[in-house]
Amino acid sequence: MLVPLFEYLDSINISGAGVFQYVSFRASMAFIFALLIAMLIGKRLIVFMQKKQMGDVPRNLDIEGQMSKRGTPSMGGIIIFLALIVPVLLFAKLNNTYVILMLIATVWLTILGFLDDYIKIFKKNKDGLSAKYKLFGQIVLGVLVGVVLYVSPDVVIRENIETRHNKQIEQVEFNQEMVKSTKTTIPFVKNNNFDYSNVLFFLDKEHRQGAGWVIFILATIFIVTAVSNGSNLTDGLDGLTTGITSIIAVGLGVLAYLSSNVNYASYLNIMYIPGVEELVIYAAALVGATMGFLWYNSFPAQVFMGDTGSLMLGGVLAVFAIIIRKEILLILFCGVYLVESLSVMLQVGYFKHTKRKTGVGKRIFKMTPLHHHFQKPGNAGIDALIQKPLIPVPESKIVFRFWLITIILTVLAIITLKLR
């Protein structure tokens, strides 16, 4: 909203108005505004939620420290939502297709999570919104994102082309023509590109490219759904998902900036994507909003984000990565989310398998998602294959260690672009 105003002020030679043309300035302002909004409105909203008894009861009350969390206000994702949306509306260019997509994803997933929390808290239904409705909502968003990226004339790239001599890269250039493409960035290969249409190798070249968009849209649906649910599963300890999201947002913001700059994109040998520099403002606002929320969500938490926040945070990270064509790197960026999701799937699968074979279900972990495994004592009547650690790890230590792992994975995700 402020960008057109300052562009006009700059056109009539108002001193200092031209600073708004710099992404770095607008990103810095978005970060500061988001941080302040989260901290300033956070306390008021927490008091309001306490008065309205908007607290949730933790499911795992047999874990140390969980009883003390009873009655802690949930639905704190509203704080993150407001702190994120306002700076983006103020400092980003709202005619940018990528920004519009991110705003739609943010609003859509927040509403979806809000409905789930509303049913749990006010309707006293612990199951919340039916899983099939959650999945349907995530699929609809995935389809929307994929189709918009397919049909929008503004969504184009300039593909990177290598000049090699004796197997060494001498120069990286970009096609002058802006093209629609189903390509994405992938590490450890020569030109860092993977084309979804290559999955349909059995088709002739003429039909392969068009059909490749079907594969791209299906991949978008899967990624949005997987990362959103992974974030939701990870949200079980004070500050865990909040801190992880903030770290990943920094990494994705860096990649958005690099992808929008011809020189940096050439150095990293990745495709050049005009217009994604506006997503740096979104990433900065996301970091500010999550850090501001962490002021109240860190151990011991004064408020939980609930599904209002956790479904949204994972989903917007997925959409962001897809837009800048770095979605395959989410395997590293969101490594903690991935492991948390896998722990649940393995636990359920193994329990059902052993129950079907022997009549008694057995576990791999003491409890899932994985972060709860570390909170349970070992050899305490729990029939699990993995008993260590025998002594429960303090919640704050688990959170901090998972943050450190995410920092390492985020750095690796960026530097892998130069490892080929």
SSE sequence, one letter per element: HHHHHEEEEHHHHHHHHH
Number of helices: 14
The residue ranges in which pLDDT falls below 50 over 5 or more consecutive positions are none
Helix proportion: 55-70%
List the helices and strands and how they pair.
Blueprint: H1 2-11, H2 23-51, H3 77-91, H4 97-121, H5 131-151, E1 160-165, E2 168-174, E3 183-185, E4 193-195, H6 205-234, H7 240-259, H8 262-268, H9 279-297, H10 306-323, H11 330-333, H12 335-358, H13 370-373, H14 395-415
Antiparallel strand pairs: 1-2, 3-4
Helix pairs in contact: 2-3, 2-9, 3-4, 3-9, 3-10, 4-5, 4-10, 5-6, 6-10, 6-12, 7-9, 7-10, 7-14
What do you see in this structure?
The chain has helices at 2-11, 23-51, 77-91, 97-121, 131-151, 205-234, 240-259, 262-268, 279-297, 306-323, 330-333, 335-358, 370-373, 395-415; strands at residues 160-165, 168-174, 183-185, 193-195. The protein is mainly alpha-helical and 420 residues long. A two-stranded antiparallel ribbon has the order 1-2. Strands 3-4 form a two-stranded antiparallel ribbon. Helix 3 packs parallel to helix 10. The mean pLDDT is 89.
Q: Features of this protein?
A:
single chain; 420 residues; two-stranded antiparallel sheet; 4 strands; globular
In short:
The chain is mainly alpha-helical and 420 residues long. 59% of the residues lie in helices and 5% in strands.
